[in-house]
Structure formats: C-alpha cells, structure tokens
Amino acid sequence: MTTLRSRQQHGLEATASRGDKTKTALTKAPPTNPSVRTASRIGDKRNQFFDLHIFLNYGWIGILLIFLWFWGLYYVIQSTDEKSTKLIEIQHLLRKRGNGAQGKAGGKITSSQVQHSGFDIAGNPAKDMGASAGKYADPDSDGHETIDMREWSRTLPFANPDGGTWAQGFELDPIPISKTTPLKVFVVPHSHCDPGWLKTFDEYYQSQTKHILDTIMESLQQDQRRKFIWAEISFFEKWWNEQSADIQDTVRMLLRNKQFEFVTGGWVQPDEANTDLYAMEVQLQEGHDFIRETFGEEYIPKYGWSIDPFGFSPTMAYLLKKYGFKGMLIQRVHYAVKKELALHRQLEFLWRQTWDDEGEYDMFTHMMPFFSYDVPHSCGPDPEVCCAFDFARLPNVGVDADGIVYTKECPWELKVKPIHQRNVAKRAMVLLDQYRKKASLFRSNVVIAPVGDDFRYRTLAEAQAQFENHQLLFDYLNENIAGVSIQFGTLSEYFDAVIGTFDPPILKGSFFTYADHKEDYWSGYFTSRPFDKALGRRLERTLFAAETMGATKEEMREARRSMSLFQHHDAITGTATDKVMEDYATRMQNAILDIEQWMVKKLTAEHEHLGTLQPCWQSPSSRGMDVNFCNESDQVLLFNPLDTEQLCGDVSVKGRSMGMGTLPCERPGSIPNSIIQFDPLSGLMTHPIKEQWMVWSVNEGGAYLFVPGSLHDYKGIDIQIEMGGFVVKTKNWRRTVIERTVPTNFQGKATFIEFIYETNLRDDEEEWLVRFNTDIQSDGVFHTDLNGFNFDTHYHRPDLPIQAQVYPMPTHASIQDSDRRLTVLSEHSQGTASLEDGTIDVWLDRRLSQGDGRGLEQGVQDNVWTRSKLRVLVETEGYKHGQNEEFDTTPLCKQMWKELNHPLELFGTVKDTVKGFGSTPFHNDFKPSNFNPTQTGDDLSHKQQAYKYEIPIVFMVQKRVDYFKRVIDSLRKSDFPRATVPIIISHDGRIQEMINFVESIQSDFQVIQLFHPYSCIEHPNSFPGDDPSLNKGYEGDSYGNLRDAHVCCLKHHFTWMINEVFELTSVKMAAGFLFMEEDYLVAPTIYETLQTGFGFLDQDNKKDEYFGLTLDISDNFANKIPKKRNQWTTKRFVSGPMTIGRHMFALLQQFSNQYCEFDDYNWDWSMVHLMGKGLLPCKTLVPNEPQVLHIGIDGGLHDHYENSELEEAITIGLQPFHAKLSGQLSEVGRFMDFPKAHDQGYGGWGHPADQEHCKKLFHGQDPKPKQYFHL
C-alpha cells in the first residue's frame, strides 16, 4: 500500500499494513499536547487512565478520583461482579470529565454534545433512546423515523472537521455496563479474498486462498469456540473440488457445529455501481446453487456481508430480501454520511425501496462506522489501540510458506504484544473500552467486531495467534467483568441477537458517490476500462438470449460463472491490473463463444434448410471490438429474446420468436420530417439537442478516483464529415447517428436518436465525455438508474467538488422540466453528471498514467477501441413531473431500454470461420483418448512400394503433446514411408515435454526438428512478443485494435517455417511438403493420396492451374462429405492441411509483399487474399474421402460443425482411399466460384514491425542463425 505523504503532512498516517483498498488509516497522529490524549491510549505513561490537564484544573477532585480508581482496582483483583461494575462506572465518570474538558479546550465534537448515547450521566437509560431523528431525518406519514439519502445529497454539509481520535467522527464515551445493562460482543474472524485484483483469480487461489481455507479448517477443529465466516463461493467451490472425502466431512461437521458459516453466499462480493440486476442475481444464484447442491438448503445464508464494494445500492437490499435474507452488513460509505448517522445512532436501519410504500422489501442493515474493515478500524474508534490487538502483526507470525511477510507492524506508537497472565487484565480492559465506545453508536448493547483483512489467515501460526490471544482476553472479561459477554461469533449470531431489540429508522436511497478522505471521491471507476464493461454487458445479453431460447442453468454453468466472476468489485469496476483485466476478458470472450455455439447448434437443428449458421457479430480477440462477419446482401436469421416485438429494417420479429431479415438492421440517417441539424464545420448535432465532444485534462486520479483538472472541447484533427453529419470521423473518435421512428403504439410526442461512439484514447491524463446540451430548466436536479432497476435523484451543489457530483450510470440518465424530458440510455455502464443546467455528460473513456494511492499502484493505460451506444430520447408528453413525484420512466423509454440491452441476435452465413486468435473461438467435448483407429493388413498394402514423389510432412507444434502422440500413432499405422522420407517438426517455443517426445520417436522416423527463433513464448516481452513500445504512437489495425502478440504469433511461425522448409538442403529433392498442425490425424492411405494427387498435377501440367492438394473435403465438417467418396474433386482453397510444391512456393515468394502487408493475422486467409487478387490460383485437388481429421477442437480454432459428426468420424475412423485420377473431375459448386477480393482482412496484422519482419523472411534477410537438428 502506498503511503500518502500529503496526508502525513496533515497528521494522518497510513496503516501500511496491506495492499487493500482502504489505503490509508484516517487517524490523528499522536498529539504532543497531553491535554488532548484520551484515557484509552495505553502507551503514554503521562496519561494512562487520567489526564494531567484535568488534575491541574480540578485539584482535590483529581486526588479523589485517583483514590477511587485504586479502590476500584483492588476490587477487580478480588474478582467480584459488584465491585468490577463499580470500577467501570467510576472510569466512565472520569472519562466524562476528561472529555468534557477536552471538548472545551480543543473545540472538538464530543458525544456529550449530542443526544445519542442512550444513557444519562448516571448510567440510566435516556428517555429519548431510539427516538432522536436527527437534523436530516424526518418522520414519515406513519410517524416512523425516516432518512432519505436523496435529501441528504441536497442538504448535508459533507464537511470534514477534525474528530480527534476518530478522525472522521467525534470523541466517544464508553457506555456503562452492568448485569442489568449488559454488553454482548461478537468477534467475527474473516478473510476478505478478492477473486482478482493485483493477481488473477487463479494466481490468488494458488498463492493464498487455498492456504487460507486449509488453515481455517484445521484451526477451527482445535477449539469449538472458534468461528469463521466466508463470503466468496468462487474460491470455495474451487477449493472444495480439490479436497479429500475426509476434509469434506470435516467441513460439513464445522457447518453443523455453526463454527463455519457462509455469508451472502454469492459467487463474489459484487460491485453495486456498475452492475445490472440480472448479473447480480445470476452470481447470487451460482453461489447458492453450489451451497444447496453440496451441503443442503439449510446452509444458504440469511445475512449479507459486503465490506469492500465502493458504495452501495438499494438494489442489493431488494435482491437479498427477494432471496429470503433477514439482514445485511455494509462498510464503504462516505465518511460524512457515516458520521451523521452515527451522531443519531442510525447506523442500523431498515433499508427501504423508494417505490415500496408498505415496506415489503425492507432490509435490516448494519453499517460499519469506521474507516475500513481491517482490525485497526473494527474494534472501536481508536485505530492505534485496535491495531495493537491485531495479533497477525506479531513478529514472525504473518509469514507465508515462501517466507514472504504479508503483515506489517502497526504504524503507530503502540505495538502488538502477545497476551499472557501478567498483562491480560490491563489489555482486556483497554480492549473493552473500545467495544464500549463502539456500542455507544448503536441502539442495542450488542457489538460486532470483525477480525480480519485482505487474504488473512494464510498460515496456522497466524490463525493460532489470533484465536489464542483473543480467547485469553475473552476469558478474562467473561470471568471478571459483570455484564460482559464476549465470544467468537458468526454474522448470523450477531444479527439474531440484534434484530428485534429496538425500532430502527427507515432509510431510502443509495450510498453514491463514495469518498474515503477529504475530497477523494471514487467516481473514476464508474468509467475505468469501458471496453471491459461493455464486454461484460454483451455476455449478459448473450446469456439472457440463450436462456430465453431454452438453455438450462446446467448447460450455461461455466458461462454463468464467468459472468458472475466479472461482477466482482475489482472486475467490472476496471480497478484491477492489466493482466487481471485481460484474464477476465478472456474468460468472458470464451463464455460468449460457448453460448453462441450452443445457440448455433439449437438453431441449426431447428432450421436445417438454412445450412451452417454462425453469429454475425464476433470479436477478433478478447479485447477487440465486435465485427460483423455476415454479408449484408444475404439474409440472416433473427432471434428476438424479448417478449415484445423488435425490428430489423422493415422486418418485425415477434417476441421470443425468429424471423428472416437482411442486414443492416439500421443505417445512419434520418427519418421523414426529421428535425435533426448538424454544424457544417464540426459535424456535431445542433438540434434538437446540442452535442459536444469534451475532454477533462487532469493531473491526478487513477482507476478509482476522478480528480478534475480543466474541461475543454475535443480538438479533432482531419475531421471527416459524411452524410451531412450523420457520420463524423477523426483519427481516434468516430460517431454515427441513427434517427429512429417512435413505435406507433406509444402515446406522446418524442424524438428518438441513437449515437454510436467509437473511441481510441491514446493520450495520458485525459478523460473523454460527450455532453448533450438542451435548454431544459432542470434546476440542478438529475436522475440516474441503479442497476437497471431503481432510480436515484441528485442535486447539483456549487459547494461540493465536481468529482462528488459524478454518478454511476449503469443504463440511464435523465433531466426534465415541465415541457421536456431528456433521457440518455446506454448499453453498458459509464460515469455521468449534470454539471450545468440542461446538460447530461456521459463519460466514454479515461486514460491515466499514475495510480491514485488506493493500492493498485498502476494507471489505466490499456485502452483499446471501444464502442459506446447511446440512445437519446426527448419526450414532451407522458412523463411525471412534480416535486413530490417519484421519478419513473415512461413506457416508451422502458421499451427502448429493453431493446438496447437485449437486441435481436443475428445469425447468418459468415465470411469464414474466425481463426488464429489463440483464444478458443469454438469448443468441443472431444477427448483424444476416444479415438481408436482400426486398421487391417490390406489397408497398409502400399506402405513398402516405391514412390515417385518425395513429400515430407511438416508439423507445426507447440505444447499439445497428448494430441501429437495420437497424430504420430496414426502416422505409424499409415503408408507413410518412414524409412526414406523424413518428418519435419517445427517448434513454436522450447516446450521440454514436446521436445522429449519428439526425440523419443527417432527410432521410428527420420526427424528434422526446427525451432522458431522468433517464438513469442521465447520473447514474451520483446518483438515479436508483447513489446509495450510497439503500441506507442500506433493507431491500430484496420479495426483500430492495438498490436497483440497473441494474435500475431501463428502467422509469424508459419511464415518463418515455410521459408525455412523450402530452403532445407537435406530435403532439397522433395517435390513439395504437406503442412499440418499438431492435432490432425492421418488416414492409412495418406501417402498414396499425396502420390496420386501430385502425379495428376505433374503429368497433366496443372502446376499453374492448381494451388496444391488439400485433404479434407468437408473443411472440418463445414461442408457435407459427398456420397460418392471414391473419387476426386476440385474445390477452391479455404484452409486446413495443404500440400504445395516448389513451383507454387516460388510464386508465393514473388507476391510475398502483398501477403505480408495484408492486415490479417491468418496465414491461410492471407493466401486467399492473393487468390482473390488473381495472384495465386485458388483451385485445389481434394479426395472425396477425408484423409485427415482435426481432433484438437477443444483448444483449436475451427469448430464449425456438429459434435455428432466428429464423434461419428472418430468411431468409424479415417478410411482408405484408392481412387485414381482421370481428366474429368467433379467440382464442389459453392466453393468453385473465384474468391472475392477483400481489401480488408480480419485485422491483427497491421503493425509495420510485423509486416517488415515478414518481408525479411521471404527476402532472405533473416538475421537469426538457422536452428534445426537432423535426428
């Protein structure tokens, strides 16, 4: 954690204890004036239970009090309940006098200055206990004490006066306790485990979380008094599946004993600002389903635990209530809000939905009062004292198995010391003093004191230190102090003890925007990493569509969990490291592809006449914008996931049904009688709303914080204005406008305009936004949605900083007056504000080079091209407008929102399957062990004959050894002449397991090993790997994507390999080569087929007419295999294993510049590009009986067929092929048309470095030494 030096200058010290997001412990540094020291500070000999200032001012009273103190201590030693109670009362009186003097001298707020303690000075219950509404709370129509956070946002001062010991609060008095007014304390051990932040989910699990769960289970067994709570089911499920039956039985026993308890039980602790209700509910269901299926319904939690999300939404309270919860605990709330609630003992309340007049969904809520959820800010108001009871900080305790010290000493004067018989009495009383002070903030005498932090309890030594030392303190207090009951507890034990003991106030509204210190508002994360926010929402849309189509939870299990993981409060927020965000994106991209595969399979089965279907919109990489791969001239299948109709052009698709349409569904432009106008110079809209592209230039801020600098218009260079302004393009900012017709079934006048922004933010310290400006007299009132479910109302305040007035916009922002309402709808979450009357600002992206002192320790610089689709609705009728009206959307707006977030799903004929990205576009359940080839002696009759043409097989391999073993086994059983013709194995990286296997087969084959000298595996951080400098100043490929080595590497390998192979002197007599990947089985007659094909091409002088031979007429079952299998066919080249001769390679060399400069990461599609240009022949010769079979689909790149077809092929096996060739060949009609010339490829190969390197390889300018070995 980074220490904030500027804060230290003001007397604030950082906890410096961990890398969590609390970042700084807000406490006063030890003051030099003894008159402001509290009695609970045990480290100052001048001030240990009494104050010298009091003594000097009150003389004989001080002497009497000292006498009384010693008198009370004597009776404590005698351990009598009555006398120990008297001691507490005397100490209470002493502190009353001291605090009173302190308040007068220092001018600080004290608890005696507000009516909230519940007791008078004699310790009797106050008459107004629980009845004080406070300055900003009012009774509702039923007389209930009601707090409206929307009103607070308008009137609360949000000041930050010095609170003394509790820096953001005020000085507290400990409550008196006795047998008649007892204090009950539940100390709740916990460990907050982020499913991704500085490390990925898997990295955290392996390095920390699995050790934490191991430790907990072992430690809890040692003493039945020990308790522990656990929140993140994503981690627990992974750990559970690795455990033995004995450990699993132990966990069940601990659950039965109520020592171990699940809290909330969601897959993660979700963010509540950027999330949508649908995703929030799915992640809760995934956790609960696991608990239910593994342990039983009785272990589903009934209490929520949310300690780290950065602000809170009433939507979560609604959701938990819907699932039968009784209460919830929250932590990160603006310090001024906490203080105001604490002043009136309103930290526990019934959280009510603004639309719920009857309180049906009221949720009892506990708000933790202090700065953080760590130990220093949990036991009481003094973090210095509380930190001294964090026994994980003892020397040599917080050290993991690798010797890494993960806890640090307390940053204050007091240090942690072990508890023993000589100090237990004194230390116990100091701790009790903190509990009593904390109790004064609540209306019951029950205290919850969490003991934990980020990734705590990693070792048994740490667990023992916490449990054993605390138990000694508990035992002393329980045995010696009347009216004290203290124990380890669970969350449910606390709530069960509290709920029903008092009449809580009612609270409405949200807790946004969160600030943890001064003017540090966490409003940046509403926008950080907008691409990933959009990708997460796309996954939601796809999953929703599949479930509407009939997919079950079980079928969507992995996809649901990938989506659930992204709801984590450091994922969708965009507040994790670059590699972690990439990990989330990869998981989501694969989940989308899995869902789409399920949808394609279902649709294909129901619409066989349409042939092979694929989703139209696909992404070339995990962090690349979607591209439409469907031909606009072709018809596409439309699926509507909503229960209301949607349009594609003029085609109406009824709810939850299918239709056929032609793309595009919508085009830029206006409707008849349009009133839209644009500025002729800038192209920006001027009517009916004014559109402004704006930039915040900032000097501070990071992933969490927005810290404004100067606001100015975006300075576009080389602006291209098309269609009169409906399309505007600059280098890094593009915008398309589509005016849409308002459906006739909606009443009221309205204008409906869609803005599609595509941005590529490249300059540091900038935040981009679009401002929609109108003459609406909004009077500073601004409405946003909460999770696409609730609404929040905000009031602009000139006395608050700008960053305090930026809010989350999951889907909606609105302003209005009596004449018009302006609404902006978004398909993904963003930050929004209304900083001037009549305006709505929507953030599009932000890029910052520095961190903001909240633990991430990096900026946000992994920006990519991002698409933000906004629907702007101007309504003049049909909406509510009035001071006492609860804000709500119109039926038209609701429909537009539904269509934006759940649009038509489009399926059609794709240009060809996306290949080569490295992430797995399509998956299959096939496992290599399923294949059992059956061969007969007759099948191998050609093995020993002499062959005219030498054709070695070249394998591109990396690390899939299991597949390659199967491939080699099939080659052994084929007619390949192992004794005379070598196999060439080109390694993309030195994977030792693969090298060992290749060396093991040299007794069976002649083997030539090549090692790609430019392998990305060998050069991960330099070219051709991910050299960060390559993207500096690079504008991106044809689709605006930055260079991604993961995409480029395959083409680099193939290009180097083909040049290397044709130059090998050891095979200079070879007529050509068969190029294959490591996961293609070969048929028994593979070499006979090659001989027959080459003989046809050579004998009939077909070299210039044919590109070469291909060996799978189905192209991985994308096409049906002909019924007449014992013949040859002519078709154009698409992909797959290919055999080319030296003449064709020479032709490829001649046009290598065009190959290298074509912006497509696929080597095969780059060749198709040359064919489309007429530079290479497109025809190939292919046997009707497939002679290769692609088995590695689950990690491959070409899955576009039914699983059943593959399984059938595996069962039957590759068949022999003996057909001879004549002059007459059949042709596959649909594949014999000349390929279209495409000037734009699939991208990923636009960087000059990749193109120039490619050219050097073809031109013999390779600087690297040749690396191959003939075994």
UniProtKB/TrEMBL annotation:
Keyword vocabulary terms for this entry: Disulfide bond, Glycosidase, Hydrolase, Manganese, Membrane, Metal-binding, Transmembrane, Transmembrane helix, Zinc
Gene3D superfamilies: Glycoside hydrolase 38, N terminal domain (3.20.110.10), Glycoside hydrolase family 38, central domain (1.20.1270.50), Golgi alpha-mannosidase II, domain 4 (2.70.98.30), Spore Coat Polysaccharide Biosynthesis Protein SpsA, Chain A (3.90.550.10)
Chain ranges of the Glycoside hydrolase family 38 central domain: 520-588
GO molecular function, one term: metal ion binding
Keyword Cell inner membrane: no
Residues binding Mn(2+): D1079, H1190
Region (Disordered): 1-39
GO CC entries: Golgi membrane; Golgi stack
Sequence positions that bind substrate: D988
Any GO BP: mannose metabolic process
InterPro entries: Gal_mutarotase_sf_dom, GlcNAc_II, Glyco_hydro/deAcase_b/a-brl, Glyco_hydro_38_C, Glyco_hydro_38_cen, Glyco_hydro_38_cen_sf, Glyco_hydro_38_N, Glyco_hydro_38_N_sf
Cofactor: Mn(2+); Zn(2+)
S-S pairs: C1156-C1254
Family classification: Belongs to the glycosyl hydrolase 38 family.
Protein name in the entry: Glycoside hydrolase family 38 central domain-containing protein
Origin organism lineage: Eukaryota, Sar, Stramenopiles, Ochrophyta, Bacillariophyta
